[in-house]
Amino acid sequence: MFVVTVVFEVKPDFAEDFRAAVRRQAEASLSREQACHRFDVCRDADDAARFFLYEIYEDQAAFDLHLASEHFADFDGLVGPWVIGKTVECWVMDGVIDGGEGP
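User: That's the sequence. What structure does it adopt?
Assistant: Structure tokens below.
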């Protein structure tokens, strides 16, 4: 599996708009991309304008298709002016250790 993590720092005045947009993006990715297996949206506990995304794709090619999708282009165009900083990192999953159900 191919894992992508993204940290967004957003202009505080746009934090709620970004939150709504990124949640729509997550839902679109999961419903329209068969090879997108997970798309978690997290918000910093101390900074409501800082977001962390955790995405799992079948492979690098699936992530490349995600980046080429219309819904990603729409999202990127919408939120671009709101974003102060963005850090993207790619990972290869090296196993899963499941301690049970999450929250």
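The chain has a mean pLDDT of 94.
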